[in-house]
Design goal:
Layout: H1 13-18, H2 28-36, E1 40-44, H3 51-62, H4 83-86, E2 94-98, H5 107-123, H6 127-131, H7 135-145, H8 157-169, E3 173-178, H9 182-190, H10 193-209, E4 214-221, E5 237-240, H11 255-264, H12 271-278, E6 281-283, E7 286-288, H13 291-300, H14 320-328, H15 331-341, E8 346-349, H16 363-372, E9 377-384, E10 387-393, H17 397-417, H18 421-429, H19 432-445, H20 454-464, E11 472-475, E12 486-489, E13 496-504, H21 511-524, H22 528-534, E14 538-547, E15 550-554
Parallel strand pairs: 1-4, 1-5, 2-3, 3-4, 13-14
Antiparallel strand pairs: 6-7, 8-10, 9-10, 11-12, 12-13, 14-15
Length: 556
C-alpha cells in the first residue's frame, strides 16, 4: 500500500489538500457557523487540537479570491451539505491574524511581532492601495504595510483594514483571530501582563465591537479571558468552550475518525493502545482524541507497525501549569494529585471567566486552568447552588506521563535543595529513630504515584541518598545470594558499608514485623558476605518498613 503522508506540523489547509496529506474532514464546522450565525465566536480548546488548521480552512472557504478554490473542497462534507452553504463560498473579504508569534520575552518584541502580522494582512490586499480614497487613507494603508504606522494607530488597524475592504468590495468582512491568548499567557509569565491586556483589549474593541463593516468573527484560544474586559461590551460574543455540546466534534478526532485513520494505514490491531494513550477528552458530550498525538503516532509507524506509543503532546509545551500546581500544593492537594495519577477522580467547581492573575489566588483556579487546557477531563457535572461542580480525571496515559515526570523533576530539585546531612549522619551513626523521622517527614511532602508499591519507596530512598558525600550508592546490585535494595559503600574498605532492605506494611501495626522480616532477609541471603570479602568490617544493616507515608527503621 502506498503511504499517505501525514500533516505533522502542517497547519495550512491549502497545503494539506494540494500536497496530498491525509486529511480528517472538519469542513462541517462551516455548516454550523452558517446555521448558528454567531456574530463573534470564541472557541476555547487545548493546544494542538486543530484550531489553527480549522481557521485556515475557514479562510479558504469564505474568502473572495481570483483563483478557483473549489478544488480545495472537492469531495469534502461541506460540498454535500446543500446549496445554502455553497452560496457562502468565496463571498467575503477575510482578515486572518495569528497572535502566536507574540510569544516574546518583552512587550516591545511582542508588539513588533503584532505589527508584522498586521502588515502581512495589508500586503495581502495590494489592490486596495490603488482604489482607496482619499489620499490620506492610501498613505495610512501604506504605513501599515511597511510597519511604519504610529503605535496608537495599530489599536484600530483591523477596523481600518475592514473598512478599506468594505469600501472596495461592498461586502462586510470576516475576521479570524487565532491563538488570541498566547500573548496574554506569555506576558503573565514574562512580567508585562497589564500592558498586553490593554493592547489586546483595544485591538479587539475596535475590530469586534465598534466595527460596522464586520460580517462575523471567529477567535480561538485555550482559555476564555474575561475579567480583564478584553471583550468589554461585546454582547454579541458567543463563547464555545469544552463544556458546550455545539461544535464539539470539530476539534480533536472522534472515535470513527481514528478508526478510519488506523484502518487506512493498516493499524487496526493498535486500536486499544491508541485509545489508552490518546483518547479520553470530553468536549460537551463528545469523546475525542488528541489529534496531534494520533497523527504523530501513526507517522511513527511508517517503517514499523509495532512502534511504541510515546507522549507526543508533552513535548509541545513546558507544562508550566502542572508544574505550578505541584510546586504550590499543600497536603490536601498532594493527596488529590496522587489520587488522579492513580486513576481516581476529584470534584471541583468550574468557572470559565478566569484570568492568568487568578492562577495565584486559589488552588481551585489552578484546577480550572488544568481542566480547560486539557490536563484534566470531565467525567460528570452537576449544579450545586450557583456553582457547577465537575468530576474530573486525567484523560489518558499520555497526560498521566506529564504529571509523573513533572512530579519526579520537582522531587529531584527539592531533594537537591534540602539539607540532608542529619539523615546521612543518622544512617552512618546507627540512629534508627532519627532516620525514620526524617524519612517520614519527607514522605509527607512528596507526591506518590505508584500506589505505595515497593518501587515507589525504593526510588524515594535512592533519591534521598543520591547526594550523600564520599559514598557510592548501589541499587539492586548482586550481592551474596540475592539483591539488597540499597548498598552504601565508602570507597576505602576502612570506611563503612550500609545494607538497606525495604518492605511494605499493609497496616501501621505491621511496620515492626516487616522491619524484622527485612533484617532476617539480609541474614538469610548473606548480603554482607561479599562486603566482608572485599575487606569491609564496619557494616551497618537496616530493615526499613513503610506504610503509606510512615516509616520505621530497625537494626539487628
Amino acid at each position: 500500500m502506498e503511504w499517505t503522508p501525514l500533516p505533522v506540523g502542517v497547519e495550512n489547509f491549502e497545503e494539506i489538500i494540494t500536497k496530498g496529506y491525509y486529511y480528517v474532514d472538519k469542513t462541517l464546522l462551516i455548516r454550523d457557523l452558517i446555521d448558528l450565525r454567531g456574530k463573534v465566536n470564541l472557541f476555547t480548546r487545548p493546544r494542538r487540537f486543530g484550531k489553527t488548521l480549522n481557521m485556515s480552512m475557514l479562510r479558504y472557504f469564505f474568502e473572495k479570491s481570483q483563483e478557483n478554490r473549489s478544488r480545495l473542497f472537492a469531495g469534502t462534507k461541506i460540498m454535500e451539505a446543500g446549496e445554502k452553504y455553497l452560496k457562502e463560498f468565496g463571498q467575503y473579504p477575510v482578515i486572518s491574524l495569528s497572535l502566536k508569534s507574540m510569544k516574546q520575552g518583552s512587550y516591545e518584541s511582542a508588539f513588533h511581532c503584532l505589527k508584522e502580522e498586521i502588515a502581512g494582512e495589508f500586503i495581502r490586499h495590494p489592490e486596495l492601495m490603488e482604489n482607496l480614497t482619499p489620499a490620506e487613507n492610501r498613505e495610512k494603508y501604506r504605513r501599515f504595510a511597511v510597519c511604519s504606522a504610529d503605535n496608537d494607530e495599530y489599536l484600530t488597524a483591523l477596523k481600518f483594514l475592514s473598512e478599506c475592504l468594505y469600501s472596495c468590495y461592498g461586502d462586510k468582512t470576516v475576521i479570524l483571530i487565532d491563538e488570541y491568548d498566547v500573548p496574554l499567557e506569555n506576558a503573565y509569565f514574562s512580567g508585562f501582563y497589564d500592558r498586553m491586556v490593554r493592547l489586546i483589549r483595544s485591538l479587539f474593541e475596535s475590530a469586534l465591537k465598534t466595527n460596522n463593516t464586520l460580517e462575523f468573527a471567529v477567535i480561538t484560544g485555550c482559555l476564555r479571558i474575561s475579567k480583564e474586559s478584553i471583550f468589554t461590551g461585546l454582547n454579541n460574543l458567543n463563547i464555545i468552550s469544552i463544556m458546550d455540546t455545539t461544535y464539539a466534534e470539530h476539534f480533536g478526532f472522534t472515535q470513527n475518525e481514528v478508526d478510519e485513520m488506523l484502518a487506512h494505514y493498516g493499524l487496526e490491531r493498535n486500536r486499544d493502545a491508541v485509545r489508552t494513550w490518546y483518547d479520553g477528552y470530553q468536549f460537551g458530550s463528545t469523546e475525542v482524541y488528541n489529534p496531534w498525538s494520533v497523527i504523530n503516532y501513526v507517522n511513527s509507524c511508517y517503517k514499523n507497525k509495532e512502534a511504541l506509543l510515546k507522549p507526543y503532546w508533552s513535548n509541545t509545551s513546558s507544562n508550566s501549569i502542572v508544574r505550578t500546581l505541584v510546586e504550590r500544593a499543600d497536603i490536601s492537594v498532594k493527596q488529590e494529585i496522587e489520587s488522579l495519577i492513580e486513576g481516581k477522580t476529584i470534584t471541583k467547581p468550574i468557572h470559565e471567566d478566569i484570568t492568568y492573575d487568578d492562577m495565584d489566588s486559589t488552588q481551585d483556579n489552578l484546577w480550572n486552568f488544568l481542566f480547560f487546557t486539557g490536563y484534566l477531563k470531565k467525567i460528570s457535572e452537576r449544579q450545586d447552588g450557583e456553582d457547577i461542580l465537575v468530576e474530573m480525571a486525567i484523560p489518558n496515559s499520555e497526560v498521566r506521563y506529564i504529571y509523573k515526570n513533572t512530579v519526579l523533576r520537582w522531587f529531584e530539585e527539592r531533594t537537591k535543595e534540602k539539607e540532608l546531612s542529619p539523615l546521612y549522619e543518622s544512617i552512618l551513626n546507627g540512629d534508627c529513630d532519627t532516620m525514620a523521622q526524617i524519612l517520614s517527614d519527607n514522605l509527607m511532602e512528596t507526591i506518590s504515584f505508584y500506589d505505595y508499591q515497593e518501587s515507589y519507596y525504593h526510588g524515594f530512598l535512592a533519591g534521598m541518598l543520591k547526594n550523600i558525600g564520599n559514598y557510592i550508592v548501589l541499587s539492586n546490585r548482586e550481592s551474596g545470594n540475592g539483591r539488597p535494595d540499597i548498598l552504601l559503600k565508602y570507597p576505602s574498605v576502612r570506611g563503612k558499608a550500609v545494607i538497606m532492605e525495604i518492605k511494605i506494611a499493609r497496616t501501621y501495626q505491621e511496620l515492626e514485623r516487616r522491619c524484622d522480616e527485612a533484617l532476617k532477609q539480609i541474614e538469610d541471603q548473606k548480603y554482607e558476605e561479599v562486603l566482608r570479602q572485599e575487606g569491609y568490617s564496619d557494616i551497618l544493616k537496616y530493615g526499613i518498613a513503610f506504610y503509606r507515608k510512615e516509616c520505621m527503621v530497625k537494626q539487628p
